[in-house]
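User: I'm preparing a small set of examples for a lab meeting where we compare how different chains pack in three dimensions. I only have the primary sequence for this one, and I'd like the structure in token form so I can line it up with the others. Please keep the answer compact; I'll paste it straight into my notes.
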Amino acid sequence: MTLIEILKATGSTSFTRHEVKDIALAHHISTAELKKYLSENRKERGLYGVVITESKPIVTETEEQISLRIRDRFEILESLASSAASGETRALIVSGPPGLGKTHTITNTVDAMCKDSVVVTLSGSASAIGLYRALSDTRSKGSVLILDDCDSIFFDLASLSLLKAACDSTKKRILRWNSEYHFGGDAIDKQFEYNGTVIFITNIDFDIELARKSRLTPHLEALMSRSHYLTLGIKTKRDFMVRIIDVITMMYTKSEFNKQEAIDSIEFIKANIDNLRELSCRTAIKLVQLRKSLPDDWQRTAKITMCKE
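Assistant: Understood. Below is the structure token output for the 309-residue chain.
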């Protein structure tokens, strides 16, 4: 997407220069495109439907407010995951950056509630055939199919058709396999009623994808209309940092490592936030592990292995 398309997709029509730069950075917009947009006069930018204003009031959240906002989202996530695990919620889409606790929260909740039920997780990628098999395995009420970072299915029409049927709001959800492909000795029915639950864990921002207006837009809209859609609201580096501190503090209180290890890990991230290859809870955990194993050389090692040159 172009910078203009991304700005429009936010739903706002007015931005400060700082906000435009942050949005461009978050969506990997080229420096050349950003400079071109910022250098155009205000009248020309207005023709695109978005303008820059220096007088727009800036509301800055405190770290405590950010923490409360994000915790609120994760509490809602736990509630929705519980509802999905019990079969009351048919479909749930959870969107947010990687490495900040989406999968951990969902799998812990589902595993605790579905000890006697079938839970299938597809990660990375899946074909339409693989998806149909997984849906067949989780067809019973109380069973759960978790699609974790399996974003390729959102761009495959056959997979989307299966998911729309599985997540439908009708009383009976009938899934059919209409291809000539035969499942051999697996004895998978070519048609069955689906009574399970589907949980999508994704890094994709559906609002941005819908703004692209591609041939997949109607299918994604249909999928969202059949599901509860929760975005975790973690977008800026400050949001990331606050979430990481919360998670590491929680792990420290559970005695997974000591207080000084937690402090050192957080301080390293703060000092190197602009150069880290990944900004996530995983980064903090890897730093703690380095500090344990290389107490006299962990910072030098971390800078070489975890920071961009």
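A couple of notes for your slides: Residues 43-47 have pLDDT under 50 and may be disordered. Strands lie at 14-15, 51-52, 91-95, 119-123, 144-148, 174-176, 191-193, 197-202, 228-231.

User: Perfect, thanks.
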